[in-house]
Amino acid sequence: MTRVKFELPADDLARATRFYRDVFGWSALELPFGYVLVDADGDEVDVADADGGISPRTEFVRGPVLIIDVPSVDGAARRVVEAGGKLLNAKERVGDHGFSQYVEDTEGSVLCLWESVRDPREPLGEA
User: Fold this and answer.
1) 3-state class of 76 per DSSP?
2) Is residue 10 in a domain?
3) pLDDT for 3-57, tens place per residue?
4) Residue 63 maps to which CATH number?
5) Helix intervals (H) in the chain
6) Are 70 and 83 a contacting pair, CB within 8 Å?
7) For residues 61 and 84, is the Cβ–Cβ distance under 8 A?
8) C-alpha distances in angstroms, 56 versus 16, 77, 102, 120, 125?
């Protein structure tokens, strides 16, 4: 089963965070690298199990983006290209939390592939 989360773009992270807290009762946790994790149930945000995030608006995150949890960003990125999609950036490490890579499907929708960091003794890469 694939887990899907969401990412919302914002020009002002604090303003966007207040909006979603005030309007929908979401809980939020600002990470030290300019990203806000959110939980739609209003409970304390669990970094490993957040529902989604609020991201600074970038060239890839211009509208809402689905974040798709995959066992391997490398493997999923290869399958995206094989199926006719495009890679938009290189795989990036996101703090101690995992790896991400933005891709575009065959219809022009932007997706974010997400690979959580595993036990440091377990090798990363193809799965």
Assistant:
1) helix
2) yes
3) 899 999 999 999 999 999 998 999 999 999 999 999 999 999 999 889 999 999 9
4) 3.10.180.10
5) 13-24, 73-82
6) no
7) no
8) 10, 23, 14, 29, 27
Cβ partners under 8 Å of residue 60, min gap 6: 88, 89, 102, 110, 112
Q: Which pLDDT score, from 0 to 100, does residue 127 have?
A: 39
Output phi, psi for 84, to 5 deg.
Answer: 100, 5
- If one counts the domains in the chain, the total is 1
Amino acid at 39: D
Q: What domain range includes position 89?
A: 4-116
Q: Any residues with CB less than 8 A from the CB of 35 and at least 6 apart, and which?
A: 13, 53, 54, 55, 56, 94
CA distances (Å), origin 70, targets 3, 8, 127: 8, 20, 9
Q: How many Cβ atoms are within 10 Å of 21's Cβ, its own excluded?
A: 14
Q: How many CB atoms lie within 10 A of CB 16?
A: 20
Cβ pair 2, 70 in contact under 8 A: yes
Yes or no: say if 52 and 67 are a contact pair by the CB < 8 Å rule: yes
